[in-house]
Structures are given as C-alpha cells and as structure tokens.
Amino acid sequence: MRRRYLGRTGLQVSEICLGTMTFGGRHGFQHMGQLNTIEARRLVHLCMDEGVNFFDTADMYSAGQSEEVLGAALAGRRDDAIIATKVRWQMPDGSGGPNDRGLSRHHIVRSVEASLRRLGTDHIDLYQTHGWDGRTPWEETLRALDDLVRAGKVRYVGASNLTSWQLTRALATSERQGLERFASHQIQYSLAAREVEWELLPMAEAEGVGVMVWSPLAGGLLSGHQERGATPPPGTRRSVGWFEPVDPERTFDTIDVLREIADERSMSPAQVALRWVLEQRGVTSVVIGARNERQLADNLAATRWSLTPEERKALDETSASPLPYPYWHQDYCDAERVREEGLD
C-alpha cells in the first residue's frame, strides 16, 4: 500500500481511504449499508493490516452513528489512523434548528465538538467542509477552521464538492489573511464521471491541493453487475436515483471494456475501475466503501498491480466525453503546439 503526501503538507496518507457511509443504521436507507460496530471493526482492522491508515466519515452519515461506529472500531489503534470527517449539513433528524447547517462559525464550532465526542478522540486529523455554503463568507468559515487548528482540535482542513473558482477563492482568502488553507479537496471521479479533468484536477495540482476521490465505482455501477438497458437491481444506489450516469450508453460501453480487461487479468471489473482512478495524475487517495469483507478485500487488491498502456488507452478512449467550450479549443491549440515542437 503506497503512501502519498496530502497536498503541500507533510502528512502521509494511504492511497486507499476507507469510506464509512456504510457504518451505522440510522439513515434508514438499505442501499447505504448498515454495518454495526462488530462488522465495522473487522473491515477497519482488515484495512489497517493491509496498510490503510486513512478513514473518511461525516457527521451526517447515519445521523452521527457512522462517527460513533468508526471511533469504536479504532479503539486501541487510534494512533495508527488518520481520521477525516466533515461539516456542512444539518443532521438527518432535523435537530438543532436553522443555525445547525452551513459553514458559519456557530455551526462549525458546535459540530466539531459533537464529532469529537462521537469519535471518542481529542483531535480530528482532517476536517472537511462538506460542500458549498453560498451564504457564509469564506473569511468566517476559514477563521473558524483556523481557530480549531490553533486550538489543537483539528490538524488539517479540507474541502469537498467545490467548483474550481470557489476553491481558488478560498485559497486566496487563506493566503491574504494568513489563515489555514485547504490541504485537500474531495471530489467525485470515475470512468463514468470525468468532468473534474477539465479544471478541478489541474487546478488542484497547480495549487498544491491533495485530491481525495469519492464514488470511484459510480455507486457500484462500474463493478459490472448491472446490465445495459435493465432496471437497476433493488438495493443498488441507482435504484433510488443516485449516481445515474450522464451518458448511460457510454458508461456501459466502458463497462464492456472493463469486463474484457478483467477477464483477461482474472480479476473483477471493480478492481480495474479502481486501478484506473489510482493511476490518474493528481489523485492522492481513493475513497472506497464496502458492505462486507469479501468486497473490501477485492477492492484493496487493486493496489497490487498496474494497467498496461494499451489497457489505459482503451479505457481512456471509451469513457471520454466530448469537451465543452473552451476546453475543446484549448485542447486543439495545445495539440498543435506539441506537434510543432516535435514532442508527439
């Protein structure tokens, strides 16, 4: 299991991060998974035995129970783990009133204290904003996060699900006011959703921001268990309207290629899809989820091999979507420049 530095920091995290949305049962959605503490502990320990040191959760997952289960699962091994959690949304039960949402100082300070209690720890290694809050200025949000770092309750701060201009503005605010900057950005990225390649990935690399990838299997679709044109099976995330690809035909063309490579390699399509994301430039860590040990072991095996150039090319070409303006124009211009310089 390889370790990579998180952005410009000196913190090393494993290339695989275990996502814990499947921990707990208060959300009431079977497609999310409902693992109890005993089941979760087995998955956590299996990960750690394989070299995983990075675990991602959020206060709203299962109404706080995901944090509770993760904290219990790490009992006795907390010092070997990097815990990431998030703040932004109101708890699913609607408690706390109108001020317990967003990225205000009020909500951040209350939320971090609650997360610390649920996790059973005195600090959070990576505290992430769980989305955009168009009402609260970055100055307020970042000052509150900076105070938490100075108080020792948080070690690093990160963001998730922002546009390029939003993240750029946040980084500029940190630089201008001398506040803690976002060390990471957690974004959706997979063979079924490659839009982040247009701006978010290049921008993160240019600004020294680590990239955490969520939904690398497109909610399980890229595991290859679903068929073209068929009704999504009950219990899958697609069956309840989650992770429907923008272009289903192109996605199932990609799944066909995944299956071909998987058959030739005697491995699962999920491993191939994960391997593709792991090899993408600028990616720091890939967040995976699992409902059982078999599924987790298969996903972890994606770290032990590499795609051939031919396999990468086949996946790249099949999954690529037409570039919108101005990206197609810039791609054309850059290609011409490379040819002129004889670098192709």
Structure characterization notes:
The structure is a single chain. The chain has 344 residues and is an alpha/beta fold. The chain has one domain (3-340): NADP-dependent oxidoreductase domain (TIM Barrel, Alpha-Beta Barrel). The chain has eleven helices and ten strands. The protein has an eight-stranded parallel beta barrel, surrounded by six helices. The chain has a two-stranded antiparallel sheet with strand order 1-2. Helix 2 links the parallel strand 4 and strand 5. Helix 7 packs antiparallel against helix 10 (309-319). The protein is globular, with a radius of gyration of 20 Å. The two termini are 33 Å apart. The model has no long low-confidence stretch (mean pLDDT 92). Residues 15-318 form the NADP-dependent oxidoreductase domain. This is NADP-dependent oxidoreductase domain-containing protein. Residues 224-243 are annotated as: Disordered.
Percent helix range: 25-40%
Structural class: alpha/beta
Please provide the count of β strands: 10
| Averaged pLDDT | 92
Distance, first to last CA: 33 Å
CATH class value: Alpha Beta
Q: What profile does the largest beta sheet have?
A: 8 strands, parallel, barrel
CATH superfamily: NADP-dependent oxidoreductase domain
In the CATH hierarchy, what is the architecture at level 2? Alpha-Beta Barrel
CATH topology: TIM Barrel
